[in-house]
Amino acid sequence: RCRTWVSCPTSSCPLADVERAILDGLAKWVLQAEMGTLPEEPSAPSDQQAVRESAIRHLDELEKRRNRLMDLLEQGVYDVSTYTDRNALLVHEIGEVKRMLDALPPSMPSKKERIIALLPTIKHVLQAYDGASTAEAKNTLLRSVLEQAIYQKTHRCTRAESPSDHLAINLFPRVK
Question: Which range, 46-60, 81-95, 150-164, is most confident?
Answer without folding.
Answer: 81-95
